[in-house]
Amino acid sequence: MVAKRFYVTTLAILLATQVLWAQKKNKSATGKELYKKYECVSCHGKYGKTPFDLTQAIEKYDEQKVKDYIKNPKNFGNTRMPSYEGRIAEDQYPELIEYIIKLGRQAQPSPRS
After folding, report:
1. Which of 61, 71, 96, 99 could form a disulfide with 34 if both were Cys (CB 3.0 to 4.6 A apart)?
2. H or E stretch covering 25
3. Residue 7 domain-assigned (yes or no)
4. Taking a C-beta distance cutoff of 8 angstroms, is the pair 66, 17 a contact?
């Protein structure tokens, strides 16, 4: 009886571990990973500042406008930025925009007291 209980407990732990591992493996990409994947870094640099500064984007636009800009920047005026409409999955935009906001916050000077 004890051996059977041990076997069942061990099996349950192994199954739970496999489920957690599979969930972690399928977790969506982070904003930083997306920033690299879609080659944002090639125009905006590692820190979002050079050669084309995007760190002020969230000050100019709300999150929806940033998403709209990424999808079709030509709607916002003359720009070299390519359209990402259909290239970035809808569920990836929140992570990417959150990362852009983070870059903007890191670029801001600390307030002096």
Report:
1. 96
2. helix 2-25
3. no
4. no
CATH of the domain at 96: 1.10.760.10
**HSE on the CB side for 71, CA within 13 Å?**
13
- Do residues 11 and 69 touch, judged by C-beta distance below 8 A? no
Q: What is the pLDDT of residue 42?
A: 93
Indicate the pTM of the whole model: 0.68
Number of structural domains, the chain? 1
Residue with tokens 């820190």: 47
Determine, yes or no, domain membership for 8.
no
Q: Which residues, given as ranges, of the chain have pLDDT below 50?
A: 23, 25-27, 113
Res 31: pLDDT = 95
**What is the extent of the structural domain holding 34?**
28-107
